[in-house]
Specification:
There is one protein chain. The chain has helices spanning 2-28, 38-52, 54-61, 70-87, 90-108, 111-116, 118-123, 132-156, 179-182, 184-201, 206-238, 240-244, 246-283; strands spanning 161-164, 167-170, 173-176. With 284 residues, it is mainly alpha-helical. A three-stranded antiparallel sheet has the order 1-2-3. The termini are far apart.
C-alpha cells in the first residue's frame, strides 16, 4: 500500500497542477450552464469507476511488464494540453487528460491494467466540451425532430398546440425548445447513462448488450420528447411561471428517470425475447 502511494503521489500532484486551473474554469464557465451541467457528474462517475477498478488493475498489472508505448501517448497528451490551454481549445485541454492517464497506465503498470480501466477512461469522453460549430450543426435538427414529435403527440391527445420551427404554442403560451431540452449535450448525457447501465449490470449476453447499445439512441430521443411534452403540459395547466420555475428542473428529472425506465424496460424485453428464442431452439 505504501509503495502504491509513493508511486502515484507525484502523478496525482502533477495532474492537480495541470488540471485544477482547468476545472476551475469549467466550474465557473460552461459547466455552470444548463447545456453542460452533465460535465461534473461524468467526472465524478469516471473517478468512481477508476477507484472501483483499482484493485483489479493492480492485480492485472502483476502479469505483464510496463509498456514503452506509454511515452508517445503521454507526450501527445502533454502537447494537446499545451495547445488547448494556450489557445483556449477546451476539447484539447480537457481531452488531454484521457491520453495522459492512458500513457501513465502503460508506463507505471501495463496494458493489462489499462484494459481493466478502459471503460472509466472512455466514459471521460462525455465530459469533453465539443466545438460549438459541431454542437450547433447537430442540435438544430434534433430540436426540430423533438418539437415535431411532441407537437403531434399532444395534438393527438387533444391539446391546442401548434409549432413554428422549434417554437411550440400551446394555448396562449409559447415555448422555445432550447438546447438544454433537446440538444446534442442532452443526447450525449443520456448515451452516457445508458452505457454506464450496461457497464454496471455486465450482461453475459452479447445479444442484449449490442441490442441495448443500439436502442440507447432512440431511447434518448424518446426521453427528450417526454421532457418537452412535460414542460408543455406544465406550462399549459399551471402557467408560464411554473414551466420556467421549479417544475422546469423537475422536468429535467423526468428526462433522466424516463430514460432510465426505458433502458430497464428494453433490457427486460430483450431478456424475455432471448429466453423465448432459446426455449424454442431447445424444443426444436
Amino acid at each position: 500500500m505504501r509503495k502504491n502511494i509513493v508511486t502515484w503521489l507525484p502523478v496525482m500532484l502533477g495532474l492537480a497542477v495541470l488540471y485544477v486551473p482547468s476545472l476551475y474554469d469549467l466550474f465557473t464557465g460552461i459547466w455552470s450552464s444548463d447545456e453542460q451541467m452533465h460535465g461534473p457528474i461524468v467526472l465524478g462517475i469516471s473517478l468512481w469507476l477508476l477507484q472501483r477498478n483499482w484493485a483489479a488493475m493492480e492485480a492485472a498489472s502483476q502479469s505483464q511488464p510496463t509498456s514503452l508505448w506509454g511515452w508517445p501517448i503521454f507526450i501527445m497528451g502533454l502537447l494537446l494540453y499545451t495547445l488547448g490551454r494556450s489557445q483556449d481549445i477546451l476539447m484539447f485541454e480537457i481531452g488531454s487528460v484521457i491520453w495522459l492517464l492512458i500513457g501513465l497506465a502503460l508506463l507505471l503498470r501495463s496494458s493489462a491494467a489499462l484494459k481493466v480501466q478502459w471503460f472509466a477512461l472512455f466514459f471521460m469522453l462525455f465530459m469533453v466540451p465539443l466545438p460549438s460549430a459541431v454542437v450547433d450543426a447537430v442540435t438544430m435538427p434534433m430540436k426540430m425532430a423533438v418539437s415535431y414529435v411532441a407537437e403531434h403527440v399532444l395534438f393527438w391527445a387533444g391539446y391546442p398546440i401548434g409549432r413554428n420551427g422549434v417554437i411550440l404554442q400551446i394555448g396562449q403560451y409559447m415555448l422555445l425548445v432550447a438546447d438544454a431540452c433537446a440538444g446534442l449535450h442532452t443526447l450525449l448525457t443520456l448515451e452516457a447513462l445508458g452505457l454506464l447501465y450496461l457497464n454496471l449490470v455486465r450482461r453475459d449476453s452479447a445479444f442484449r448488450n449490442i441490442g441495448l447499445a443500439i436502442l440507447i439512441v432512440p431511447i434518448s430521443f424518446t426521453a427528450n420528447v417526454i421532457r418537452v411534452m412535460a414542460l408543455s403540459l406544465i406550462t399549459y395547466h399551471w402557467g408560464d411561471a411554473a414551466g420556467q420555475g421549479f417544475l422546469h428542473g423537475f422536468a429535467g428529472m423526468v428526462l433522466f428517470l424516463s430514460a432510465l425506465m426505458l433502458i430497464i424496460g428494453f433490457d427486460t424485453a430483450l431478456h424475455t425475447f432471448e429466453h423465448y428464442r432459446q426455449r424454442n431452439t431447445l424444443n426444436n
